[in-house]
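Please, structure for the following, as C-alpha cells.
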Amino acid sequence: MCRWLVYSGTPVLLCDVLYRPVPSLIDQSLRSRMGVETTNGDGFGIGWYTDDIATPAIFRDTGPAWNNRNLREIADHVRSPLFFAHIRSSTGTAVQQTNCHPFRHGRWMWMHNGVVAGFDRLRRELCMAVDPALFSRIEGTTDSEVMFYLALTFGLDEDPPGAVARMAGLVERLGHDHGIEFPLQMTVATSNGERVWVFRYSSRRESRTLFYSSSVESLRALHPDVAWLRGLSADTRLVVSEPLGDLPGAWNELPESSYGVIPPDGELLAGFDVAMTAH
C-alpha cells in the first residue's frame, strides 16, 4: 500500500512537514510502522497550491523519496498553505511517473492508499463509466486514477462526499457482480484548493489507518512551551496515514467509514457509506 499526508493552514515550507518531524513521512518511505509494507519506494509525489494560482503544481518521480535531491530542494524552498504528499508502494501496476500520486485535473488533486480488488477484471467496466469527455485525461494504469475520474464523473465539483460515495458504490457493485467479496479498500484525500475532503472506507470495515491532528488551540494548551505552535492559525490541520513526530495528544484516528472536511463547515467529521449506482 502507500503512505500520505495533507497539510492545510498557515503557509509553511514543505520541508517543515515532510522532513523535520521524527518520524517524518520521508522516514516512513523507508520504515513505515503501520503500513502493510515497511518500505514505500515505488515512487512519490507532492502537489501544492499557492494563493495566486488556482491549479496546483505537481512533482512526481519513480524513485524512492528518501534520497531524492530534487524533492529536498523543492521542499526547502516552496511555501504553501495547502499541499499533498504521497509515497507509493505499488499493488501491481507499473512503477512510472503517470502512476505516482497525487493526480490532478483542473483545480482538483486526488491521492489514495488502498486497492480495488480484482482491478484487472473490473478495469474495463469501471473505465466505461468515466465521462467520455474525461476519459482521455487518464494517463496511467492505476485503480487510484480511475477512481479519481469516476468521482469527477459523478459530480466531484458540486458534491465531493456524494461523488466519492457513488464512485465507491460502483466499485462495490461491479466487484460483487464478479464474485469479489471485498472489492474496495481506501483512504482518499481530494482538494479543490479551498477545502480538503478525506475519506476512510473499506468493504471489510477494516480500513487502512488514517489520523487527523488535534486543534491548534488544544495543542497549545497541552504544550505551551512549543514555540512553533504559536505561529499556526486556528484552522491549521494535518491528515496522515500514520502519525508524524512524537508530540503527545497530537493525533486522533479518523473513525471507520467516515469522512472529514478541512477547514470544516460545521462539523469536522461525518459518517460515510457507499451509494450504489446503476451505471
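The two ends are 28 Å apart (CA to CA). The mean pLDDT is 94.
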